[in-house]
Amino acid sequence: MNGGPGPSRIARFAMAAAWSSFLAAGVLELLVFAVVDPGELRWFGATPVALSVQAVYTVGFLIFWGVSALGASLALLLASLPADEVRPAARAPGWPR
């Protein structure tokens, strides 16, 4: 290790959101396409989707990744909000010492 400073707080949050959402998207991909056949997808029940099976898998994964990254980012944002400042009670000057 070079001993230099590590990534910034924002970079760590971005990496945490991206990696966790990547794993979640992989699991969602497995669960959804275990049930859905991408070769038989249709646009709202009418025309068949004019994409290859691999393209459907790719687009599905990217959509799952984007949605779960949005959720992970929102969770990290809400968890890292600063706490409300609590004002100290009014005390006599010099108490306690």
General description of the model:
The protein is mainly α and 97 residues long. The protein has a domain of 60 residues. The protein has two helices and no strands. The longest helix has 27 residues.
Q: Can you give me a brief rundown of this structure?
A:
With 97 residues, this protein is mainly α. Helices cover 56% and strands 0% of the residues.
Secondary structure layout:
Blueprint: H1 9-35, H2 53-79
Helix pairs in contact: 1-2
Please tell me the overall pLDDT: 84
Helix content: 55-70%
* End-to-end C-alpha gap: 45 Å
Largest sheet, described in full?
none
Number of helix segments? Answer: 2
Compute the gyration radius: what is it? Answer: 24 Å
Write down the overall geometry: elongated
Class of secondary structure makeup = mainly alpha
The count of strands amounts to 0
How would you spell out the order of helices and strands? HH
* SS strand fraction: under 5%
Low-confidence stretches: none
Describe the structure using short key phrases.
97 residues; mainly alpha; 56% helix; elongated
